[in-house]
Amino acid sequence: MPVSADSSRLVYEGLKGCGVRLLSVLPETWLVHLVSLAEADPEMTLVRLAKEEEGVGVSVGAHLAGVRSAMLMQNHGLLASVNGIVSLAQLYRVPLLMLVSYRGGFGEEHPWQTEGGGVTEEVLRALRIPYLALERAGEAAARLRQAQTLAEASLRPVALLLCRDMMWEE
Amino acid sequence: MLRLEAMRAIYPLLAERIVVTNMGAAPAELFSLGHQPGFFYVWHSMGLASSVALGISLARPELAVVALDGDGSVLMNLGTFTTIARHRPPNLLHVVFDNEVLLSVGRSFSTATATGSDLAAIAAAAGIPRTATCHSPEALADACREALAAAEPAVLVAKVEPVGPASYFIDLHLLENRFQFERHLRGLRGGRQEIRRSQEGGGVKEGGTP
């Protein structure tokens, strides 16, 4: 499987490095190694969701309870979570770290990913969510730390887009 | 039964626990019985009250967490039963007040529970180990007491009349509630180690002002 195990490991180490101890996920192809790393890690509470929006609730609960968390999902999961993000995380001023696999961009071979890929950044901008496209795994640790610092300072969601060049080895 | 009667019957069980409500009548009636620092009211984002409660119960296994929900809300997030069932938090009780309507919209639009959808049966089929449907305040209080004593998650459905409070207003801004609640949960940990998010995590180090 050409999903990059090395990049996944660096992203996971970045998450651990900024103190994330609870991860809500809805798996997809690019995220398989990240989910496996969380599964194998006794320090991580892995919450397996039925639909991504639940993860907003879980992360809000974890934050109020004093545990750092993150959501791991595909960009279509971000689209499926919009009301939770707006009416819970933003309304209640809760930092929410979102790692979003950015499907449907240049190089995408699956037709069903392309519409979501085309609107992802516009949706993030419309929601006023600060985001960065993470294209090189070597930057993961620093960008994750910056994202979390901003989320906690602003008490708002922040997103990192996990891009094809980093996640997929052609 | 009236939801308010049901709420009054279980209030002594709620007062000392962590409670997360959905929006509408449940928070207004709970608030009218007496706000506690462990009560968190999730206005809007229908369906996510139980997800917030799940996050708290997984993050803090030592706390007893109760989600107070409604049929309209839980029908928007039926997957929550499957997620709770697969993680089986022993400290989570999910109470659903089922009045078979979307009451707070002003006119009583029926929900699917009015036409036979059985939330307790759905929860049981999702894998929730302890479920029941209660038709009296006493039965609900007994079921809550037993569920709180058991080391497994539970879903209790309380069938209530479609009657709400005169006003849904509560004199507690949602952000005031949110910060008080977070502080309360931090205090329950009993230590100072948790005073870290804004100071340490946010980049403000001890002794320095950026």
Compile the SSE list and pairings.
The complex is a heterodimer of chains A (170) and B (210).
Chain A: H1 5-17, E1 22-25, H2 32-39, E2 45-48, H3 52-64, E3 69-74, H4 75-80, H5 82-90, E4 96-101, H6 111-126, E5 131-134, H7 140-154, E6 157-162, H8 164-167
Parallel strand pairs in A: 1-2, 1-3, 3-4, 4-6, 5-6
Chain B: H1 3-14, E1 18-21, H2 25-33, E2 39-41, H3 49-59, E3 65-70, H4 71-75, H5 79-87, E4 92-98, E5 101-102, E6 109-110, H6 119-126, E7 130-134, H7 137-149, E8 154-159, H8 174-188, H9 197-201
Parallel strand pairs in B: 1-2, 1-3, 3-4, 4-8, 7-8
Antiparallel strand pairs in B: 5-6
Helix pairs in contact in B: 1-2, 1-7
Q: So what's the CATH class of chain B?
A: Alpha Beta
CATH homolog superfamily of chain A? Thiamin diphosphate (ThDP)-binding fold, Pyr/PP domains
Form type of chain A: globular
Query: How does the helix and strand content of chain A classify structurally?
Result: alpha/beta
Count of all domains of chain A: 1
One letter per element, helices H and strands E, the order of chain B comes to HEHEHEHHEEEHEHEHH
Shape label of chain B: globular
Radius of gyration of chain A, rounded?
14 Å
Mind telling me which CATH architecture of chain B this is? 3-Layer(aba) Sandwich
- What fold name goes in the CATH topology slot of chain B? Rossmann fold
CATH homologous superfamily label of chain B = Thiamin diphosphate (ThDP)-binding fold, Pyr/PP domains
CA radius of gyration of chain B: 18 Å
- Compute the number of structural domains of chain B: 1
The tally of helices of chain A reads 8
Total strand segments of chain A: 6
> What letter string, H or E per element, gives the SSE order of chain A?
HEHEHEHHEHEHEH
Strand % of chain B is 15-25%
N-end to C-end Cα span of chain A:
10 Å
